């Protein structure tokens, strides 16, 4: 299963960037770490910022999503946030960090970890603007229940598939759905369609890639076979797959269409979902080939809807995704960093550190030997592909 991580680009009122020096390789990087079960991406970013730097921060935008196919064991999908410090002083707060310091953009250190320069460049140049949402609803089944178990329960419930969904899964109402970052580019929609809270303060899970396929002002939706609710096409991200590759694959599997991704709409977190949480990454897309063909045993129907005629029986959270896509929210980037992992896939972090300690090299030299500089063509801008 792909693992999720966050980086935080903390910029002060002089637009200086805070970097931390890692203890393990004595190199500079953006603060960050893994997303824990039960927290949203925004919560993870604020927690990691405080743990590693001593600062409380306010998130100001989602810079982008950076996929590392083949590195799923060590945070293969990284979400980078820009933030401002609101309290505290920079100081290392964990054994993972030896120094925390602000740098002027023109005086950044040269000993940066391998994949940091692109993310730093995007943060400093104002890239970003996609929405970030959190759905606060407890999973109503035991955490260990699997999809097959859930379907068996559905089939013996004496309820229709739609009624079972609405009774057990899809009846969350605001304020259970919170917009943590508003996103840029939104055009005005009828007031009756603006749902959710606009709260900005107080700002290993699963990840899925979703596509909002737009054509002539209408949005393509699929009716799911399992609960007969309408939803945006999409599904889980494979072990060695980028978010964008997963979105394109899922669309073709579920609808028969080939698509071009046009923008990153937003990230929609379902906390504690299936007992561990899931983060849905939604891309806007345009069809470029193929023909409509519902996926057998997964999709009953495919249809297009305008903003005023969205179906009432939408899956949980899909109304917010649909409205954001239709209203033009977006602006964060989506990049794939196709850099080969230099160690055997089964090698643990502890084993890598043991190899480092017997190598006879300094920590930075060990890092540079194994994590070579990123080459042209290894970092791919996925928007527009």
SSE layout:
Elements: E1 4-10, E2 17-22, E3 28-29, E4 32-34, H1 41-53, E5 56-67, E6 77-87, E7 97-103, H2 116-124, E8 131-135, H3 147-155, H4 161-168, E9 177-181, E10 206-215, E11 218-224, E12 230-231, E13 234-236, H5 243-255, E14 257-270, E15 278-290, E16 299-305, H6 318-326, E17 333-337, H7 349-357, H8 363-370, E18 379-381
Parallel strand pairs: 1-6, 5-17, 8-14, 10-15
Antiparallel strand pairs: 1-4, 2-3, 2-7, 5-6, 8-9, 10-11, 10-13, 11-12, 11-16, 14-15, 17-18
If you had to describe this structure to a student in words, what would you say it looks like?
With 385 residues, the protein is an alpha+beta fold. The chain has two domains: 179 residues, Alpha-Beta Complex (Nucleoside Triphosphate Pyrophosphohydrolase); 178 residues, Nucleoside Triphosphate Pyrophosphohydrolase, CATH 3.90.79.10. 20% of the residues lie in helices and 32% in strands. The strands form three sheets. Strands 8, 9, 10, 11, 12, 13, 14, 15 and 16 form a nine-stranded mixed β-sheet that branches. The longest helix has 13 residues. The chain is globular.
Brief summary:
By secondary structure, this protein is α+β, with helices and mostly antiparallel strands. Helix content is 20%, strand content 32%.
